[in-house]
């Protein structure tokens, strides 16, 4: 989505990513990198006793993977500007396939050379359920 310079986005522009399946290896690797070994993610026996009935992927893992599904063009992106209204709405299980749907909801000039594009960032799984929703803000360079 973020391959055009600032000034070429209008409110309502949309983009959909390709899919990516969340794997056991993703969950274990993320636990090792983040230090988040919470039982709901790592302990199948414990997870069976929860409302989810099985292990779930870390919400922050799914959010992180979603950024890898976006198209970031070098030279266009000046900086990641922030995330607002982040919500983890439905669990993502090992084996679920996620994709991202982006919709531009705001554009704001930041001087002559840059601007901030805000998108509604929805991560959905193969069932059509939204697993994470947020507003992403990116500082983009003009052409």
TrEMBL record:
Show which residues constitute the signal peptide.
Answer: none
Query: Which residues are in the MaoC-like domain?
Result: 19-120
Domain of life, per UniProt, equals: Bacteria
Among PANTHER family, the record links this protein to: BETA-METHYLMALYL-COA DEHYDRATASE (PTHR43664:SF1), MONOAMINE OXIDASE-RELATED (PTHR43664)
What name does UniProt use for this protein?
A: Dehydratase
Q: Which organism is it from?
A: Sulfoacidibacillus thermotolerans
């Amino acid at each position: 989505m973020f391959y055009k310079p600032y000034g070429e986005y209008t409110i309502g522009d949309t983009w959909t990513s390709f899919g990516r399946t969340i794997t056991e290896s993703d969950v274990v690797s993320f636990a090792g990198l983040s230090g988040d070994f919470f039982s709901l993610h790592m302990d199948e026996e414990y997870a069976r006793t929860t409302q989810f009935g099985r292990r779930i992927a870390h919400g922050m893992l799914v959010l992180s993977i979603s950024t890898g599904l976006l198209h970031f063009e070098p030279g266009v992106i000046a900086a990641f500007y922030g995330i607002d209204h982040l919500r983890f709405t439905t669990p993502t299980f090992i084996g679920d396939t996620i994709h991202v749907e982006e919709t531009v909801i705001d554009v704001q000039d930041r001087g002559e050379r840059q601007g901030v594009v805000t998108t509604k960032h929805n991560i959905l799984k193969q069932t059509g359920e939204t697993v994470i929703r947020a507003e992403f803000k990116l500082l983009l360079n003009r052409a």
